[in-house]
């Protein structure tokens, strides 16, 4: 709608790995970060040692290293997705209440989560389809959404049916209210907040083409 | 009083039908498989089970659910690719589910052990998991009132115990062990090793013996490093 | 008032050490115990090794040993009264919230406290004289009174002015409501509860003489 | 962000007038005397101080109070045989006192670090320390609503830090350190020793580095074993 500034930074939509690389680049040095199960886990592949990022896993560890392979695999050392992982120097272990105190007490700088939908005001829906016969499972999603200083979402902008997942109001059951600060999608990066949605950059589409896909008013970053 | 017990069967023998049983573990890490198997053997039924998950594959808690011993699950994440026994019971309406955000689960268990009557937390505010619960705005944030989860028995797994019941754990297998030990009236622990009193550095004890009632040594426990690697 | 059973077990009032010895003897083997500052501390002198009692100190330790002497003295190892103490095999250290969780969560079998007054229904007053110019200080008294499974009080039965400290209702500010289960005094041991006060034994006085000192109805143990 | 700082003066330089400052220690054990002295030197005033006590003798927190830098004390046990500086200020009406049962003090500090909006506890129910507070009966017991205590800064003392700020403590000097580190926006730690990252066993870390902002080494700290013995 608003300014015509050229914020298109890629001539194609971003793939999952490109998007993960972008998120990784945007994490400030020295941050404490929790990467949600699924697509957000890819971000860890692109964190550079000089960024000095500490990864938290909610099942009780700070200083989580890469996925374990071969001889490293240890059933007592897993991440929140129950995948065997490794331990970096400077790691620490703690019990579940202490681990969630880190999340809920606002000590994580960033968590990166997948989503079914994000609303214009940063509401997040990522835990339940709302279908009557679905078995609900929430895990630590609500604690992360509510507790981290910044909540980044990674998702495709559109469903397989071409419907925007960035919405005026979420139709799926909420995970948290007004918690999402950034949305990284294959087609654009959105900054969400109480004043609405700003588009930081677009990938493979112009701002106007993006606006046509999203059913809520967007503002281009200046 | 602390007791060292020879077999897992004897350790769980006192668990009565209708008990609320906390079971440690997150996924397989820290899950006390041998104690759970013994509980299955014991025949105790109509149990309310507190665990982060609702069983995986064909072992441990999953079997307890398969055999119809669990009346109600209190957990945060029942649905997994291999949670077929829970899935079947749930879809058949044969098991009750109290779904709790994982941090609320941990904090409610901790509250029970710490004598807290209830607490307000932002987690879950404005979601369907807060429906019917008391809420209030504190410091500008919506918060939900959550209550402690007490238990009759906790079954947990630790790495080592000393002669007075002090426990240490191993890596992320620590998870719910310490808070469940404190929240249950009777805590039963399976350990890989029993060491002499004085062999654990007092600075490094994770669960003090005051929280432990029964200890049984299970040398080559399922889910340990050797089993998985 | 009631039965004439002879419950006098000593021909003289008990001294502080005799009383401490009696309390020590009454603690069940294997108990976890917190001894309050002052007179209750004497109890530790009479605990026998075969009783296997574990002492808790609220500043963060289980397995506290005797007072430290000479080379043992270590400024980092003190009890709740800030006296240097020692560590026994099987000890453990923890932070203040974990330490008070032990007390508040009902995990201590017994705490022994001093008192200004105890009421007929087990109300305890032991932290504040209520005088307007007194500097109030409560420490862990309310947590102990409210949290321990059994609260034993040790005190002289009478003030220096000869007034009973066992009272119908406390006139001093309360520490806890209905929390005291036993009162050990120089003249008698009282069992308190919602149904009133039973005298277990008397020292240096008969039940009738005791009743004459205490302004509330007593029942002799049968 | 974690910073290793050369001097206690630099470490406390950012503490502003009117701040709420948590100070670790129970009695002298764990009291960060050198950081407190530096705070005194810095001239910061109108402080609200959270500590179990209100200073002892003529050192540390007692001097801060003597010099009139403390507007308000939040503590459980101000009155001691050698708390003459607090006593004098208090009797002169020159210092505000919020008296908190020690367990409520610890739990309220823990609540701040853990993101709890408030909690109910039986401690203090029916006493003058519950006057004016919300109460309710939970499971048949009277309980009092208590709120978190947040702070701008925590000054604490630990035994060792590694390169990422993980801390271990020594004996009963641990006391309030771990919960204050989590409750303050900015945590400043004096340690006896800084060890390489990897030198602390991850199983034995008491305060993870995520709670630590500034570390300064004070080799021969007051109140350590050598000083007392």
TrEMBL record, chains A, C:
InterPro entries (alphabetical): 3-oxoacid_CoA-transf_B, CoA_trans_fam_I, NagB/RpiA_transferase-like
Keywords: Transferase
SUPFAM superfamilies the record matches: NagB/RpiA/CoA transferase-like
Signal peptide: none
Gene3D superfamilies linked to this entry: Glutaconate Coenzyme A-transferase
Top-rank lineage group of the source organism: Bacteria
GO MF annotation: an example: CoA-transferase activity
Keyword Transferase tagged: yes
Coiled coil segments of this chain: none
NCBIfam families given in the database record: pcaJ_scoB_fam (TIGR02428)
Record-linked PANTHER family: KETOACID-COENZYME A TRANSFERASE, SUCCINYL-COA:3-KETOACID COENZYME A TRANSFERASE SUBUNIT B-RELATED
Protein's name in the database: 3-oxoacid CoA-transferase subunit B
UniProtKB/TrEMBL annotation, chains B, D:
Top-level taxon of the source organism: Bacteria
Protein name per UniProt: 3-oxoacid CoA-transferase subunit A
SUPFAM superfamilies: NagB/RpiA/CoA transferase-like
Family: Belongs to the 3-oxoacid CoA-transferase subunit A family.
Key words, A-Z: Transferase
Alphabetical list of InterPro entries matching this protein: 3-oxoacid_CoA-transf_A, CoA_trans_fam_I, CoA_transf_BS, NagB/RpiA_transferase-like
GO molecular function: CoA-transferase activity
A Pfam family that the UniProt record links to this protein: CoA_trans
Organism field: Arthrobacter cavernae
Keyword presence, Transferase: yes
């Amino acid at each position: 709608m608003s300014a015509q500034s050229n914020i298109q930074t890629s001539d194609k939509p971003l793939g999952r790995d490109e998007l993960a690389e972008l998120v990784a680049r945007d994490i400030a040095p020295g941050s404490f970060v929790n990467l949600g199960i699924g697509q957000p886990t890819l971000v860890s592949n692109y964190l550079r040692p000089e960024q000095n990022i500490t990864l938290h896993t909610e099942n009780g560890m700070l200083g989580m290293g890469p996925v374990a392979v071969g001889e490293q695999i240890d059933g007592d050392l897993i991440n929140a997705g129950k995948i065997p992982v490794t331990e970096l120097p400077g790691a620490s272990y703690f019990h579940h209440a202490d681990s969630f105190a880190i999340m809920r007490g606002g000590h994580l700088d960033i968590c990166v989560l997948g989503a079914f939908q994000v609303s214009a005001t940063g509401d997040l829906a990522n835990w339940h389809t709302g279908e009557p016969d679905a078995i609900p499972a929430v895990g630590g999603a609500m604690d992360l959404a509510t507790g981290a200083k910044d909540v980044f979402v990674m998702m495709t902008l559109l469903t397989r049916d071409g419907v925007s997942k960035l919405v005026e109001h979420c139709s799926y059951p909420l995970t948290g209210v007004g918690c999402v600060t950034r949305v990284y999608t294959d087609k654009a990066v959105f900054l969400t907040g109480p004043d609405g949605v700003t588009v930081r950059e677009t990938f493979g589409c112009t701002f106007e083409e993006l606006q046509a896909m999203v059913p809520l008013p967007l503002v281009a970053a200046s | 009083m602390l007791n060292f017990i020879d077999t897992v069967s004897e350790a769980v023998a006192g668990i009565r039908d209708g008990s609320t049983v906390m079971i440690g573990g997150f996924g397989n890490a820290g899950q006390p498989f041998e104690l759970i198997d013994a509980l299955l053997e014991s025949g105790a039924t109509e149990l309310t089970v507190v665990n982060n998950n609702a069983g995986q594959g064909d072992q441990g808690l999953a079997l307890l659910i398969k055999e119809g011993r669990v009346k109600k699950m209190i957990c945060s994440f029942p649905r997994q690719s291999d949670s077929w026994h829970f899935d079947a019971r749930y879809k058949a309406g044969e098991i009750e589910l109290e779904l709790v955000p994982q941090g609320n689960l941990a904090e409610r268990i901790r509250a029970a052990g710490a004598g807290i009557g209830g607490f307000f937390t932002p987690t879950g505010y404005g979601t369907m998991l807060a429906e019917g619960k008391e809420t209030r705005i504190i410091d500008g944030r919506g918060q939900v009132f959550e209550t402690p989860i007490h238990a009759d028995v906790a079954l947990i797994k630790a790495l080592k115990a000393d002669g007075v019941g002090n426990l240490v754990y191993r890596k992320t297998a620590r998870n719910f062990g310490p808070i469940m030990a404190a929240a249950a009236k009777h805590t039963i622990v399976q350990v890989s090793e029993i060491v002499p009193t004085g062999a654990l550095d007092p600075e490094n004890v994770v669960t003090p013996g005051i929280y432990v009632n029964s200890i049984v040594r299970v040398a080559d426990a399922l889910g340990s490093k050797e089993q998985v690697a």
